[in-house]
Amino acid sequence: MWHQYLQISLFGLSLLLLCAQVAVKQKHAVHLWFALFCGSIAILALQRLKGADWGVWQYLIGLGACLTCNGYWLVARALFRPAAAVDRRHMLVAAFVALLVIGQQLLQLLQTQWQGAATVWGPVSTATGELLTLLSSTMLMLTLWEGCRGLRQARGAELRQRLLFLGSFAGALFLCLIVAKIWPAAVADSLLRQNLAAVSAMWMLVLTQGLILWRLPRLSSQTAEDTAAGPPAAAVLSASEQQLLTAITTALQQEQLFLQPNLKVADLARRFALPEYRISRLLRQQYPQWNFNQLINDLRIKHASGLLADPQKQHWPVLVVGLESGFASVGPFSRAFKSAMGTTPHEYRQQRLNALL
After folding, report:
1. pLDDT of 227
2. Which CATH superfamily is domain 239-356 in?
3. Which residues touch 332 (CB under 8 Å, ≥6 apart)?
4. Number of helices followed by number of strands (H, E) in the chain
5. Domain spans of the chain?
6. Which CATH architecture has domain 2-227?
7. What angle (nearest 5°) sits at the alpha carbon of residue 232, between those of residues 239 and 266?
8. Mean pLDDT of the chain
9. Is-contact 234 288, C-beta < 8 A?
């Protein structure tokens, strides 16, 4: 009785919130990912409503429940990070997990419908299940990290939002992953474990919708900034901050610190005996259009351009140019160079050398 009531409630709540995201006129990325997550949770609730009573349909229905842990990770990124928080890499990771979920459902369907399939596909299904368990746990930890990231620098409403998210998400994980494994009644009853998961899912759905509404002004302001014409203006710095920025610029450009492979903010922090957050904050204020890696890559690309255009160094392989410019290997160098200059290093060299003839 309770099992059906909770699964129906979860199904209805998920569909309601899905429709709410669709109804939003000025959508942000978080609305899209949250809508997909809600749809996946609704399908999962539908599958668990009758379980084995669905027959073979339980596996076909389960194909749609492929954006749960991985889907909520994307929601958390879009919720707590600036614009473009979810790019192709993150979508590929989430899609890989989704494909594993779909594959697991199909393997289970295969084993129930074809005699002897369990012998052939059983080990594959077991391996897929173990891999899914590992990746799902990784997705959960990454989601938790999204709330922790930047927590020390957060103030006011931002701090309260992150603490609310962390407390709620950690509580949901504790209920589903700890209580369900140590409570004897839950250990012996799979339906009770599903009920605990349903309660946790409903709370996180409501909480996430609340956080989206709470953070909507911030999300809207980020969108407005991103769509404004021209690059964002650098912040006005105090005398002490300007002095520190000058020292950092001297170290990076004149001393060519950017040539150091795998240069991190931590390296600058150690050099100037300052906390990392002060270096990061100062560089964000002065170069709001770039993060640290983009700033360093810009300096490296300019240095590499000079080497490629130098007739006396035309015998240098592209790999050597990349290494001499601070890149760890030729692959990242070629990708970064083409992204910045529109051509490959080899093409750029040929263009510059032809211009001298």
Report:
1. 45
2. Homeodomain-like (1.10.10.60)
3. 322
4. 17, 0
5. 2-227, 239-356
6. Up-down Bundle (1.20)
7. 60
8. 85
9. yes
